[in-house]
Structures are given as C-alpha cells and as structure tokens.
Amino acid sequence: MTPFSYLRAQSLQDAIAALAAEPGSRVIAGGTNLVDLMKYDVEAPRRLVDITRLPLHGVIPTDAGGLRIGALTPNSDLAYHPQAARDYPLLASAILAGASAQLRNAATTGGNLLQRTRCPYFYDVATACNKRAPGSGCSARTGINRNAAILGASEACVATHPSDMCVALAALEAIVHVEGPNGARALPIADLHRLPGDAPERDVTLDRGEIITAVELPSPRFGRHHSYLKLRDRLSYAFALVSVAAALEIAGGRVVTARLALGGVAHKPWRIREAEALLEGAAPSRAAFAEAADRLLQGAVGLGGNDFKIPLARRAIIRALTQAADGAPQSQSRKVIN
Amino acid sequence: MNDVLAYVGRPQPRVDGPLKVTGRARYAAEVAVEGMAYGAVASSAIARGRIRSLHLAAAKAAPGVIAVLSHERDPGLPDEDDPYLKDMGAVPGSPFRPFCDDRIHFSGQPIALVIADSHEHARDAAALITADYDAETPQVDLMAAKAAAYVPPEPRSGIPPPPPPRGDAQAAFAAAPVRLQEDYRVAAEHHNPMETMATTVVWEGDGRLAIHTKTQGVNNPKTYVCAVFGLDPDAVRVISPFVGGAFGMALRPHYDLLLATLAALTLKRSVRLTLTRQQMYTMGWRPDTLHTVALSASEDGRLTSIRHAAVQATSRYEDYQEPTVNWSGLLYACPNVTLSYELAKLDTSTPSDMRAPGAALGLYALEAAMDELASRLKIDPLELRLRNYAERDFNEDKPFSSKELKACYRQGAERFGWDRRRPEPRSMRDGSELVGLGMATGCWEAMMQPHAARATLDAEGRLEVACGTADIGTGAYTILSQIAAEALGLPIERVTAKLGDTTLPKAPVEGGSWGAASAGSAVQAACAALKEKLLAQARGMNGAFANAAIAHARFTADGVALASDPAATVAYADLVRAAGGDGIAAETEFEPDEEFTKKYASYTHSAVFAEVRVDEELGVIRVARLVSAVAAGRILNPATARSQILGGAVMGLGMALHEETVWDATLGRIMNANLGEYHIPSHADAPDIEVIFVDEDDRANPLGVKGLGEIGIVGVAAAIANAVFHATGRRVRHLPITLDKLL
C-alpha cells in the first residue's frame, strides 16, 4: 500500500472540491473493495476523501411513488428496509445474494455501484491488464477466463462487473443521482456503467469530481412476479458465473411489462430492451422465455474457459423467468433452486 | 479405576477453548517484544528464469526501512544442500534455498526481504521492489509434463513405494468377463489454514534465540535453523504452543523461518515476519494427480485384477512423493494387482503433505472406479465392496491388528438409509432436483512414533504433563489432559498440558494421525511412572504402604490410598513436601512395539455415505447429507473426535466440488491465491454431517488408539462423486465437479 493522505469531508461541496483539486483522490465510504485494491497495490490514491459523515443516508419515499436511497445506505440496511423489501423484493433479494453479512453491513449503495471487476489479472500487478495498466495488454483473453465476459467485451478487456445489486437496479430502471463541480445531474443506471471498448480503465461515465448521492427507484411494479437467480461456484460467498434479474407484470394471463438483466456476463449489467419486448403481450411460456433468452444472449462469445456461460445463461434466464411468472422467486437463504 | 473421574472416552470440552475464543492464546505472529523489527517479503513475478537485476533503491530509501536482504549481497545463507536436508520433512532432491542465487524456481519465490520499524513500513517498502528477469517458459500443466513422467529414483523417507505386483493383473484383466479402465484427475489444492505462516525471532542476546514459529513440531525447525545457520542447539529455543490450522503445510519449515532468523542474526535484534495470504500459495500444496484405474471382475463381482497408475506433480528441484496408489492393493481381496507411481516435474514450489496425503487422492480414484464397476455389474456398490472385503493386508501379507470396516458399512448404511437407494441412476428426484446416493470407503494407516513425556505433581496436587508435540487444532491438549487426569484420579481442572516447546520432552512433528496414539501413550506412561514414584514415596512415609504394589494403590484427588484400606491415604502435598522440591516428576519415552507392528498391519477405516441434490437444468450441486462411520480404535474424546471427522468431511466436500488451485499456463502463476477466489466450502455448502464411531478393539498401543486426523477426509470425494453419478447418470472424472461439467 502506498502512503496516502486522508480527508474527512465536512460537506458534499467540500468533497467535490477536494476531488477536483487533487487528481489522485478517491472517495472512500465502506471501503470493502477499495482497501483491498490498495493493499494489492492495484489502486494507489494519493488522497482518500472520506464521505461517510455526509448526509447521504436514508431511504425516503419520492413524490412519484418511488424510493430515494441515499448513497451511503449500507447494503444490509437497504435489503432489510421494510418498504424496500416490500416494494422492491427483487432488489432486496439481489443484495442478499452478494458477499457476506459482514461485507453487506459495511458496503454502501454508491460503493456497490462503483465496485471494480474481480478479473484475477486486474488484482495481480505482476501481470498485464489494460484496465489496471492501460496499454499493457489483456492476460485474461488467453489466460484464466472462467469469470470473463461473454457479451460486450473488447479486444482490450473481457472483465465483468461483479455486482448483484446493480443487476436488479438495471432491471428496475433505477436513476442514479450524482453531484459534481458542474452541479447535480441524474442518469439512468444503464448509462452509468460502460462497455470497455478501448478504454477499459474507465468503468463508469462519471466525470472527475462527481459523487453519487442517491439511487432512485421508480414506483414499484414488480412486487409479485420477480426473481433473482445467481449461479456460482459454491452456494454462498462467490461472485456470479451468471445471474439473472427477472421482473414481470402479468395481467389477464399475458405479460404486460418485462424486465430482464444479466450479471456476471459483461462489463455492465446486461439488458436488451428488445429481449424484454419479445415477452410483452405474450402469455408466459417456456418457448417465450427461450426466445427472450436467445435475444438477450445474441452475439455472446466465449473465450474457452467461459464458453459454458452461454448455455448456462440461457438456462438461467428461462428458469428465472419461470420463477418470476410463477410468483415463486428464488430464495437466497434456502439453497434449493425452485 | 475411579469411576467418578473417568475422563477417557467421554466428551470433554477443549481445555484450550477459552484461551482461543478470548484471544489470549498467542500465535507466532502475535508475540511482541521491545525493539522488534518487522519483515516483509518481495516475491518473484515470474515462475522460471533468472533475476537480471533487482531494484532495491526505492525500498532502501523508504520510510522506516532498516535493511533489505537479497541474493545480491551474500546474506550468509549456505548454498549447499546438506544443512537444509536436516529438515525432517525433506524429500529427495535439492531443497529450496532462498537468496542463494539469481535462479527463479517458482512464481512468488522470495527475492528480497525488507526489514523495517513497523509492519506497515516493511510492507510498503517491499511493494517498491521490482526486478528485471531473464524469463524462461514455465511448465505448470501436468497433462503436458506427464510425457516426461518418471519413477522416483530415490523413495521419500517414510513413504513406501508401491508394493511389487502380485499375480498377473494384465492377463487376468484380458481374461475377465467384466472390465473397466478409466482416467481420473484431482485438481491441485492448497491447505489454506486460517493462520498464515509467521515467525517471530526474539533476540535474547549472547546469540540466544527464542523462535516463535508456526509449526507442527518444534524440534524440526530447531534442528533446521541450527544446521543452516550453524547455531548451538543450546542457544536456540523454538516455541509454538498454538497453531491456527496447518493440515500438513507446517510439517516442513518454510522461508518465513529462514528469513526471520537470517534477519535477526544479521541485525542482532528481534524480528517478526508474517507471510501474506497470497504468499501462502508459494509453498506446499496437494499435487495435481492423474490416475488410470483398471479393474476386472467375474460376473458375480469378485475382483480378478486391480491396476492403478498415478502420475503426480512435483517441483523441478525435489521429488516429493505420497503413498497414492498403495491403498489399491490393500483395500480389497484381489489376487492380481499392479500398482505404479510416477512423478512429473513442474515449475512450481514443492508439494507437501496435505490431510491424508496420497490416500485422499488414490482412494478417490479407486472408489470412483469401484462405483463404475458396481454399475456395470448391476451390483449394489456396498455389496460389491462386501464381496471383495479384505480380511488381511495383502500388500504386506499380514493380518490386521483390528478391522471393523464391516461394522462401518453396516452402521453407516443403516443410519444413512442406504436401502432407499434405487439402483438405476437418474431414478430418484425431488421437484427440480435429481437425488443421488453414493458411498465410498476410506482408509489410513494407524502409525506411531517415539514420543517422550513428563508428568509432574506439585504440592497443591496439580498435575502438569509436558510433551514437545503440537496441537494444531486437533484437541491434543484436551485428550492429554483427560489421560493424565484419569491416570492420577484428579479432576481435569487440576491438570495442565504443556506442548509446543523445545524445552519439553522430545517429540517429532505432529502428522500422519500418530499424535493421539503416540503422545497419548507417552503421557500415559509418564503418569504410570509418576504413580510408581508417588507410591515409593508413600511407602517411606506410611507403614501401611510398606508392601503395597501399584495394583494395591488408588490414586484420588486427595492422594495415594490403599485399595484395601481407603482410610490409609497419604496426601499429595505431604508426598511432595517429603520429597523436597517443588514437585515430583517422572519422564518416560514411549516407543511403538516393533514386534507388534512387524506382525500386524494397523489401519483406520471408514465408510462414507453421501446424498446429493443436483438441479437437472442448471447443474447446481448440493450435498444434502453425509454420514461417516469410522473405525479408529478407541475414541478418547467423542466431542473433539467428531470435530476432526466433520472437518475432514468438509475438506473432502471441497475436494469433490470446489477446491482448485488455478495456474495461468503462460505465466506459471497462481491466479486464485486468495480465499475469495480459491473456493473452500462455505457454511451454505456444508450439509448435515453425521459421525459414527464403531467399536474397535485394538492392541497396537496401550491406549487402543489409532488416530483420526486424516481418516475423516478419505473417501468423501468419491462418495460425493459417486452420488453425483447416481443422481445424473453423468461420470465426472475430474475433480472438482463444478456445475459447468454437468451442463
């Protein structure tokens, strides 16, 4: 770990100014990912700006009937927040599918959005990695790529975004509120994370000095037909090989609205509106689910070690949609997949 | 025998438990002394080649740095094999010698040691060290390396090579009506104990060192550092009272010990060196192993031939060996057996013993093949094993000292409900899950080693028993206290066991499951000798004892009494006072009975039953239930014994489904060197596990104990793999069985 200075921000403006003033600054909140990366010498910020005392806590109902989640809300507080758990069970389930109880207690909502890939080469400074050291090459493409992307990858980078929570937020079309040197703005979560392209060092579209202040959920629609299905190499405490967030509105035996997002397969939660549209208007059926799965996975390519993710993702999508349609969401504590 | 104070054979909570759960048990990295310096190791980025130049300037200039040691300026470590071969765990070859030259043998090899005034300064400076290398292409792929496999020219000490062939397996195979030949593979594993390797060397002045290090036996690191550094054994004390798990990886000394001692001697001050979790992957591991098993049988399921050939990974510089295939000549009665064992060299560190070395691997392959044979013969897998039950060790042509494996099969099957199993694979399901029931046999040799022990009674009637063995989390402190308390008729609260110190009576490393039988017998003998001394003292003090033999004496919480006249008692306090001094002590040496071991083969056995649930569409495997029925002689403490078997079972589950050390083939570098990505089973993966100890009367030692450290893991992976087959109809012959292998 490289020595760094530490600033406890007294106000949001303080923090923004501090980030803008010193290019080597990084925000720290829960620190569950950043501190590891610093110990591994993957990240070497010159200054940490601690925002944990800022008034960015709280889960508040919005006028639009949704929920505004302060960026510093711990993952566990959100998962067990009565209104969040009741109205957005897909989100609560996705959060509980991730990490461990201890990590969820420390990790924040904003930090979860900004966590970095778990590609093993990104973590090992003795290896080439374009995300960590731009221009050094991608070791994963021809190396160990079991957890690498099958969608949206580039020559430069095959990393995946590791979050479970973000997959649910993508399906729920959350809005991310940020504030920076040029004021406040809001963007759909789909526009927060980016594909690696030729700049894999950039995970997100935030500008320097911008801080996530809140995540806003639109009014709830998927209280009954939803499921978060996560498949991994052990039954707990492992990152997703593939995860699926499925949410449906069903009326009169037909799907009115469908939302479908994948985790563990791309540099960002993977969502294709056309795949969802294929479900809308149709009666829930295995055939319809398979068609949506195929559309969502269109263009998927493996690198060898992750080839299995393509058929696995297809099956997982069909299964999660079946669970959602049946109103029988996957439990995160009982490990039987229903 | 005093019935009220019968401790042996009863569940006794760990006597060291309160110390551990309150943090008062101090481990090697927790010893702190005034003026101590801190070390951090910089590790090689390449797996094979030479260091062209080391860049140490930034580290030397970093805050708090006291010294940087490396091969560049001869640090004074001998560059010859001999001293390093004093490691009792050394294997044939040329032991790894850090800082002796510019040669890189494995990725993560230590290339420099930073000593600083704090742990943080040392670590930060170590991160500044870089090197230019002349890199060579490493080989870390056993499948590629096996073309150059060889029979190890020199056997490893204590590890018997495969027994010579018996009968003609090839001819019997060719003539048999039912034949099977398959390849199996078990991925490389690392031990991953909670406690990382650490050494704190306390510089006591005048060249005296007190070395606190993580080890499975204090005498080995002492002998080793004395040989390597030319130290006077009287000036070196090694202390290791608590070990946070080891599973075999702390049998051999590692570079933390060498480098911490080097730094302390160089700087003439106390030094602590703790390795990182990643550095735990730069030493000892369970080697990647390829098996070919060929079985043949008559139509009614009598084995007519067994062939088992294994190729196992070792390092470029040492021929590490395990008894991997020998079990296949032992477990079943079969007239024609051919076993072979070869090594293949990789550019890695040397593998090491890891819980049931050899057996956990070899019996996976044999027991998976037996299951395939049962399936082909349409005979119940348990019945097939009973039809080929060995009543004799045919490897050495000896009777067993005891073998209650049939009772394991019977009691395990009954508890598990084996009779529920429908013979056809894919014939049992529950909702979306396929249900599979599988079983396998486990076996481990019941070994013993010479151990010395001392028992001392003080004037307050407190008993201390001391032995230089280690408690690596097994419960040694507890069982030794139980044995001693019962021998002297004392409440266990008045007994203290002292272990893990070279000033205590000598014991070898704690491994191979010999600890309970050996240290236990030594403590029992020391207590017996102490009783003789106490009685002798009593004879001189009370006329009633004048002609009393030991059989006439009763030892109780109060003192020595006569069985015939309990009123005639001499208090311990009086005995000790009369003897003069602080206490009465007796020290004895326990030696295994060679006559007995020449005559009998002594093994522990188990029958493991597993129920798995497999999601048919997604390949997700859950182990729903495990039953392990164990025959291991007398069980000293059913509570700690059960924990041993539970731990072994969970580790076996990891071997079956999760654990795999993953190397990048180009870089020769381990890419999952952390507990997040190297998957050991989580709580959610660990099922309901039932442990049965069957009665077994064994006479190999006075306690009737066989040992439990290894047997818990053996057979578990095969039972689970066989259950996965029964559930799915799919044979996955390469562990771990991850979900992609079932898609």
UniProtKB/TrEMBL annotation, chain A:
The keyword tRNA-binding does not apply. SMART domains: CO_deh_flav_C. It comes from the Bacteria. The keyword Cytoplasm does not apply. It holds the Pfam family FAD_binding_5. Keywords: FAD, Flavoprotein. InterPro entries: CO_DH_flav_C, CO_DH_flav_C_dom_sf, Diverse_Substr_Oxidored, FAD-bd_PCMH, FAD-bd_PCMH-like_sf, FAD-bd_PCMH_sub1, FAD-bd_PCMH_sub2, Mopterin_DH_FAD-bd. GO terms for molecular function: FAD binding; oxidoreductase activity. Residues 1-222 form the FAD-binding PCMH-type domain. Signal peptide: none annotated. This is Oxidoreductase. It comes from Methylopila jiangsuensis.
UniProtKB/TrEMBL annotation, chain B:
Residues 22-137 form the Aldehyde oxidase/xanthine dehydrogenase a/b hammerhead domain. It holds the Pfam family MoCoBD_2. This is Aldehyde oxidase. It comes from Methylopila jiangsuensis. PANTHER family: DEHYDROGENASE, XANTHINE DEHYDROGENASE. Coiled coil: none annotated. One of its GO terms (molecular function) is oxidoreductase activity. InterPro entries: Ald_Oxase/Xan_DH_a/b, Ald_Oxase/Xan_DH_a/b_sf, Ald_Oxase/xanthine_DH-like, AldOxase/xan_DH_MoCoBD1, AldOxase/xan_DH_MoCoBD2, AldOxase/xan_DH_Mopterin-bd_sf. It comes from the Bacteria.
